[in-house]
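Dear support,

I submitted the protein below through the web form. The confirmation email said the job was done, but the results page showed an empty box. After a refresh the structure appeared. I'm attaching both so you can tell me whether what I see now is the final result or a partial one.
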Amino acid sequence: MKTPSASRAERTGQKILDAAMSSLLAKGLKRTSIEAIAALAGVSHMTVYRRWPHKEDLFSDLLSREADQLFAHVDRELAGTGDPQARLIEGFAAIFWSFYDHPLLPREYAADPATTLRVLTVSSAPVFDRAVDYLAARVAGLMTDAPMGDDEARRVAEVMVRITHSLLLTTLETRPFTTRDEVAAWGREHVGWILFSAE
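What the results page shows now:
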């Protein structure tokens, strides 16, 4: 059971993340200060600094929260999709497109590619680990004919997440996709074989 102080701390953290998202969307990472985020959240700047000593830490945690919300959305969206391969490809397309077309990520990359790439690589462990945990819990259930064990599902999930991550990193500059359907088509051609061999 959560203590009242833990709940209050959690609510404060969410309020700070909300303020950070608003500020980043309005001004971008370079022009957003911890002090401005604190003022928008209605807390002292030391409250923010204690938890996020650097803006990049805050940016990374924002991406983690966005990922959690995205995974919940994908589960709801694909709940009625019975075909396992369609679930895999549509899930891949939905997750990739949500980051690729996110209002914050492409703009931050255009404004400050070095910092954005650092957040997406050096500081990416929290989002990466969440994605692997999320997918591993769902991959085993896709294989109805030959269910996977936990270790195998985790290995497959890590490969899928690495492909998605790599594709995101290599397309932030070139922007080859204009629609989510194009991403799904790419996934059908390049990703489906990971779980489903050609018949």
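Response: this is the final, complete result; the empty box was a page-load delay. The chain is about 75% helix and 0% strand.
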